[in-house]
Hints:
Low-confidence stretches of chain B: none
Oligomer: heterodimer
Amino acid sequence: MSTSPILLTSRVAIASGGTAIADSGRLQNESRRPMLIEEVHFLTQSPTTTLTTVTYSMGTVIRAKLRAGRFVISNEFIVLSAYGPLLQDLVGLTPGRLDRTLGIGLDAVTTRSQMTHHRWKLSRPLLLGPGESMMANFSRDVDVSGWTGGDGNAFVTITLLGRLADPSYIVPKKVMVPYISQFLVTETAMATAGDSLSQETDIGNPFLVPLQITSMNGRLRTRSTTAIGDLPFDNNAMNIDPTDGREIKMAVSGRNMIRDYTSISSVFGNTRSWEMDLKLDPREWVNAGYRRGSSSSGLQFTLTAFGHREETL
Amino acid sequence: MSVAPQCVPIVLSGYIPGINAFQTLGIDQSRLQAQYPGGAFIDQVRFKVPDGIYILDLQAELKINDIPITRNFVPMSAFGKSHTYEDNRTSPTTMVFNWKLKKPLYLRSGEVLTVSIQNASIDFDTAISEMIEVTYIGRGIMNKDYENAIIDGQVKTYRPWVTAFIGVRRELGTSDFTDRSTETDLKNPFDVPMLVEHFVGRMSIDGMDPNYQGGTSGIGSDAYLGYTFCRMWDSASKIIVRDPTPFGHLFHMSNKIWTVNSILPPKGFYIIDLDEQVSVVDDADFMTPIVSMVGYREVQR
């Protein structure tokens, strides 16, 4: 069907608490043939100025909202570290995964030229028609909660990897389009013990066609003057009490997916990703409940669902 | 006419709050029950243990009613591949051992994959006061006719089998040893052929992973990689591993498994022979080799 690999990339600078838009000209399919995007990569670089925080992993504070042509890819700004399963854990020594100096198992490194890499392998290739562009909007949280300052510009590079269709390729009338949705437990809520429940618009199918969910990812972020990064789900450092509850339950249209509150480390495992095959009918949504203990202050839990739906071109 | 299952992803989990030395405990079965009209598939089994030091001591026995899934108790670390290289990070105070089944395990509606947990207390003769959690990742089946199709024999199902050989606990730096599995350790005890998916090779160095570079146990990698050699053959005397091969080469140090995807005939078995030339290792820790066999067989309900 297709033989020519192609890669499109764009890099932007983004300030603490700011937004940026990737150059859509660089993410445009300039060929006369359709392009099939199979992977989206994000590369982040920390500010080059002297940093206030000890450890820094920008992939956890920069978010992306994507749109391909007229198709919506994500329901809101999705944190970059939630794209795809955890890559670095299998390797163990890759920068961006483990802070061995502090021994806190944080997804950040102590040196100050950190780069993090996040790879999203699409469950179905995304067709980008001739002349169409991927629109990528980025936002960066303020580096530390409640902190109006922030270190200098960070950099994020988005890369689209795919193939150009053969000249003989017949464009189908219907194509598969990925969709990402997110349930974010606010940091404010995490400061007190209790339950947070997702809303209808968080993880759901807003379309008029069925949505196939292929995986859900869980992430636990810390954002303080000590460190910015994702944490393993069970860690006695960084003010996380391992006996403190960080549990999740889930249901869809009255059908239990996780009946009893279960620790997030068991649900998402070492890759922090739960592969599944869940069909959401139009307007159907997932009810997720997140239960936390009293020592979760400064943390933020994110549940992200990845899937695809069929759209008419 | 075949019937397709209509599935919804599910997570079933249960736990015990802690376990004494040499104790065996079960998990509340109602939490692990497949309460879906057409039954459920189990795709992954996860064991969450309170620390990375329980490579050997925490063991599990799985069964469905009187049908065994494991041969007695198998160390939780010996079901699936390792995802974390060293499995001994001291500050994340819990570890998750993950077993991803090659073929899903089918449970009929209301059936339970029961699990018993044992603190074998081989490395640590102490009680564990933290929670141990067992989680099944799977799919609930919403259509009853799928279960009927399985009962009628229209649909094939598969059952996994896990069996382990646990070697003798030896002290490093004293003398050399040999160890060998028996005919019942890595065996297919059933009357049908078994597809052996992989072997897991673990080595407990005072309960820790040899890759662990903190403390004195980092030295354990010497025994793991350089001074313990394996040979292997099967019940038909066919050579599987001819020349003495370092343990860490057979069971690669990054994931601890050796994928084989081979057929083991009914009542067939493998023998593994270990030549532990550990007298030269400059350490006084204790090491225990573990080799498990993970496979599955086709069954008719």
